[in-house]
Amino acid sequence: MLVSLRFSAIFPAAFRAAALAFFFGLPMAAGAQATPPDNVPVRFGILPLGGAFESRSDWDPLLAELSRAINRPVSVLSVNSYEALEQAIQRDEVDMAFLSGKMALDAVTQRRMKVVAQVVRHDGLAGYRALILSRKTPPLNTLKNLLDQPDRWRLARGEKQSVSGFIVPQLQLFLPNHIAMETRFQSEIVGTHQTNALAVANSEADVATNNSADFERFKLRFPAEAGRLQVLWESELIPHAQIVVRREYPAELRTRVQAFLTAYGRGKGPRGDAERVVLKSLHDLAGFVAANNSSLQPAAKLAYQLARQNAVTAQWVNDAARQARLQRIESGYAEQVSVLKDVSP
């Protein structure tokens, strides 16, 4: 859904300036809200949970209905890595996104986005769990062997922005056992949960990070490969992902997006049934609930705990340097908590 921007022919000068500032990252007056023209797409960014094409195909039906609900086109940015999506957000190339944990936290605390909704799943749990997977067959198939001899194992993990693929396993399993994921294994592959699980199933790696939601999806799509795998470890519950929208959008538009999402899949009749089928294909979602920035407080606490744990266990030239780092972590966390108290629409 690409649209040519012929600003000079269509819009008055003052509006063109605001629109150009919004779409190309130019400075705007403090407190200004940019309303994109009706024919300019809202750019929706998707976390790369499977393949880029697969993720896009799964979201297309919902986004087509969202486009009709807000009366403006919606285009899709589906990428192959967390880093690529993060960079697109930083370049202001994303207006709305499906994000989790650290990425959602950064988008909000860097004052680019606001949370409007959070996903819910059919299991009714308040979150999902990070997993460690291995093959069922010995010799590298027990948690004790993993923790006792990490240098024997080939690791397949998520990117550092991934909550279940890196942050939580590092914080809750590896660092407490004096293992740094980046340095202690024989080798490592960095990829999506799907590619990492396939790497272990096909003996290209010995252990992989994953999560309970994506592993269930993996079992349906790759039953033979999933049959070779076992769960060695699972984390505490991790809060579900959020939908975030640009702060510069008017509150009225963010409210319309929120209303559409919270109603999606809850209707009766053929349309409601069709929407529930779409949601199920989206990682077995049951729908969305209204949310605001405060829903990211657990993610902020996880990021804070990991940063502090890394600082405590790292090598330092002296204790003063360590304390300075810890003080920066504390002040950064306090600032994040302050930003997340903003619960305005």
Name of the level-1 CATH class of the largest domain: Alpha Beta
Strand order in space, largest sheet: 2-1-3-10-4-11
Give the count of structural domains: 3
Q: Which residues sit in consecutive blocks of at least 5 with pLDDT less than 50? A: 1-32
What is the N-to-C succession of helices and strands?
HHEHEHEHEEHEHEHEHHEEHHEHH
DSSP summary, beta strand count:
11
CATH fold name of the largest domain, please? Answer: D-Maltodextrin-Binding Protein, domain 2
CATH architecture of the largest domain: 3-Layer(aba) Sandwich
Which range does the strand content fall in? Answer: 15-25%
Query: Could you describe the largest sheet, including whether it forms a barrel?
Result: 6 strands, mixed
Q: Work out the radius of gyration.
A: 22 Å
The assigned structural class equals alpha/beta
CATH H-level homologous superfamily name of the largest domain: Periplasmic binding protein-like II
